[in-house]
Design brief:
The complex is a heterodimer of chains A (457) and B (172).
Chain A (H helix, E strand, L loop, with lengths): L29 H6 L4 H7 L3 H11 L11 H6 L10 E6 L8 H8 L1 H15 L3 E6 L4 H16 L15 E6 L9 H8 L14 H4 L6 E5 H13 L1 H4 L3 E2 L2 E2 L1 E8 L5 E6 L5 H8 L9 E5 L8 E2 L4 E4 L5 E4 L9 H5 L8 E6 L4 H15 L5 H19 L6 H10 L9 H15 L1 H8 L3 H5 L7
Parallel strand pairs in A: 1-2, 1-4, 2-3, 7-13
Antiparallel strand pairs in A: 5-6, 7-8, 9-10, 9-13, 11-12
Chain B lengths: L6 H10 L10 H12 L4 H10 L4 H8 L13 E6 L2 H5 L2 H11 L13 E6 L11 E3 L2 E3 L4 H14 L13
Parallel strand pairs in B: 1-2
Antiparallel strand pairs in B: 1-3, 3-4
Helix pairs in contact in B: 1-2, 2-3, 3-4, 6-7
Classes of the chains: A alpha/beta (457), B alpha+beta (172).
């Protein structure tokens, strides 16, 4: 069986989604969940009209926690309800963006919260069937969810005539097979149809109109679907008071890399900064080390260089002048600083490693994960990997720095899905911000590089 | 030689297909069950799956060859997948992988000479806060060091009898 550790909750946290997950005697059973008030919101929701639930979620302003940050209520609003075709709900549990490990906690420690959030959502959108698409690398997670669904079905929370109503909806767990591209919603849909996960082009293939089996489909992230339960509990307008305007609710931030206390921390949006997360909550850097870079929202997010200043005007009209440590931990903060909060994965890099090798490691990931449909991404991701690996191993040329940047520039915006941007942004931002280090790397001696004791490619 | 499914696999297949609105959607779940039971997915097995789902065999093979987890060749008795991606690498993921390889005197992506393991790199295993991590079969092992890897390898050697495989894979 799986034993995920239960670290202490930091006093700065405001836990809504992970409220009970790390309590010592809390387990994944239905009995435990109900003892903590579980499935009360399902009952409340099923006494409401579906459109009322949709309105609450819209009022809550909850933005997608998977990466794009698109408001969930808006996504639901785009659903084509007039086609007469069945509507499907899919939970994107393919958590794969490097640096992200929040959905793992929810699914392993509190699976019924996801089941409840999904069955409320399914009713709200009047789904004919619901799916959880979980990545293959979480076999225990899949089993835990399947067991939770069985328990919920026996109680009438899932399946036929839920809570005695005339609404029925089956929920099943579907397992991926180690392909990152399945986290892209249209790739996920193709995969769930039993095909290669080749993303579809939008327009016309917006899942809300032409999704699974070309039927209207909603794809939401695990954390987002859990928030639906709490929106029903509080009411949308009340929920919207948590966090800051346009950044409502809490978010689970995943801190990893070179910090003393890596881990996941659920914080009210905008109530803390990247500096608070890294230095106060995360315990700061290892002794004797200084900060080199922060990747603020999963490895595809544009890198921030230590010492960089970010200036401009906020949506509110106020001017800002931030260092990395001042950037608010929410959706809009990192975006104002020219990057993104993405999946909430903050990766800290200290001065002990070669920044070129950091990019080479990232590039190897995106080259491996390109689905191969679009030439700029398929070829470009591989070229970027080759060039950065050559810089690390020695034997690169000075002109490779500009060549590398130009490849990145030619991928973004020229592909079917956002994997093009995801693979190009790291290269574009690393080369722009650490140009000096890349020029230096271009002149390295292969014989010397072979001797390096620590490797990341 | 035609593929002969076990009664368990047949039963699972019959149970899983009707869960989906369309038959083809069941491919991945059947592949998982089959690979778990047999160890790998032969061309004959792919033809059998195709027949269950009324598909041309190529529709199954295009799935098998797209997803990194499915394999057409056998691997060692235990499957070790070390996370290669950034957060683990920053904390020594590559060194962890080297240690696994040296303990079983094996290269990456091959069956170790004693037949016990296949060591692979995996991309981000979504446990970045406890890196370096590795999956051994279904179980995740966190905060790995050279010492803890040595202990895991000793445990595998004690639990898993050596069975050198001199023969070439079925579809080499």
């Amino acid at each position: 069986m799986v034993h995920l550790s239960k670290p202490p909750v930091h006093p700065r946290e405001r836990r809504i989604i992970l409220k009970h997950a790390d309590e010592p005697d809390y387990d994944a059973s239905l009995e435990t969940y109900e003892r903590h008030g579980g499935y009360a919101e399902l009952r409340k929701a099923y006494a409401m009209k579906p459109e009322e639930i949709c309105q609450e979620v819209l009022d809550a302003g909850v933005r997608g926690r998977g990466g794009a940050g698109f408001p969930a209520g808006m996504k639901w609003k785009f659903l084509d309800r007039k086609s007469g075709k069945p509507i499907y709900l899919i939970c994107n549990a393919d958590e794969s963006e490097p640096g992200t490990f929040k959905d793992r906690q929810i699914m392993h420690k509190d699976p019924h919260q996801l089941v409840e959030g999904m069955m409320i959502t399914a009713y709200a959108i009047q789904a004919a069937q619901a799916f959880i698409y979980i990545r293959e690398e979480m076999p225990h997670g899949a089993r835990i969810l399947e067991a939770a669904i069985e328990e919920a079905r026996a109680k009438g929370y899932v399946g036929k005539n839920i809570l005695g109503s005339d609404y029925s909806c089956e929920l099943i767990v579907h397992r991926g097979a180690a392909a990152y591209i399945c986290g892209e919603e249209t790739g996920l849909i193709e995969s769930l149809e039993g095909k290669r996960a080749y993303p579809r082009i939008k327009p016309p293939y917006f899942p809300a109109a032409l999704g699974l089996y070309m039927c209207p489909t909603i794809v939401n992230n695990v954390e987002t679907l859990c928030h639906v339960k709490h929106i029903i509990a509080m009411g949308g307008k009340e929920y919207a008071k948590i966090g800051s305007p346009n950044n409502s609710g809490t978010r689970i931030w995943c801190l990893s890399g070179h910090v003393q206390n890596p881990g996941y921390y659920e914080l009210e949006c905008g109530a803390a900064t990247y500096g608070d997360l890294i230095y106060e909550i995360g315990g700061g850097l290892r002794p004797g080390r200084s900060l080199q870079a922060v990747i603020p929202g999963g490895s595809s997010a544009k890198v921030l260089r230590a010492g960089e200043r970010f200036t401009g005007k906020l949506r509110s009209g106020d001017a800002f002048d931030w260092g990395i440590e001042d950037i608010p931990l929410d959706f809009d903060g990192p975006a104002a600083a020219g990057s993104m909060s993405g999946s909430g994965a903050v990766i800290v890099v200290d001065d002990s490693v070669d920044i070129v090798e950091v990019l080479a490691n990232i590039n190897a990931f995106y080259a491996h994960e390109s689905c191969g449909q679009c030439t700029p991404c398929r070829e470009g991701s591989l070229w970027m990997k080759k060039i950065t690996t050559r810089m690390v191993n020695g034997g690169a040329r000075t002109e490779d720095v500009d060549l590398l940047a130009s490849i990145g520039d030619q991928i973004a915006g020229r592909t079917i899905c956002a994997h093009g941007e995801a693979c190009a942004w790291p290269t574009q931002s690393f080369v722009a911000k650490f140009r000096d280090k890349f020029l230096e790397a271009a002149g390295r001696d292969p014989a010397e590089q072979k001797k390096r004791p620590f490797r990341m490619v | 030689m035609a593929f002969e499914p076990s009664p368990q696999l047949l039963e699972y297949t019959e149970k899983v297909i009707p869960r989906y609105p369309q038959k083809r959607s069941a491919i991945m779940m059947i592949l998982h069950a089959l690979q778990r039971e047999v160890g790998y997915i032969s061309l004959e097995a792919q033809e059998w799956i195709a027949a269950q789902l009324d598909l041309a065999p190529i529709k199954v093979r295009e799935v098998v060859t797209f997803y990194p987890f499915y394999r057409e060749h056998p691997i060692g008795k235990r499957h070790i997948r070390v996370c290669r991606t950034l957060s683990c690498a920053l904390n020594g993921g590559y060194q962890v992988c080297e240690k696994f390889k040296s303990e079983f005197i094996t290269g990456l992506n091959e069956i170790s000479p004693d037949g016990r393991v296949t060591v692979e790199f995996a991309e981000c295993l979504a446990s970045c806060g406890t890196g370096p991590v590795a999956l051994i079969d279904d179980d995740l092992h966190e905060n790995l060091t050279e010492e803890s890897v040595k202990a895991l390898c000793d445990q595998i050697k004690a639990e898993t009898p050596a069975a050198p495989v001199p023969a070439a894979p079925a579809h080499a």
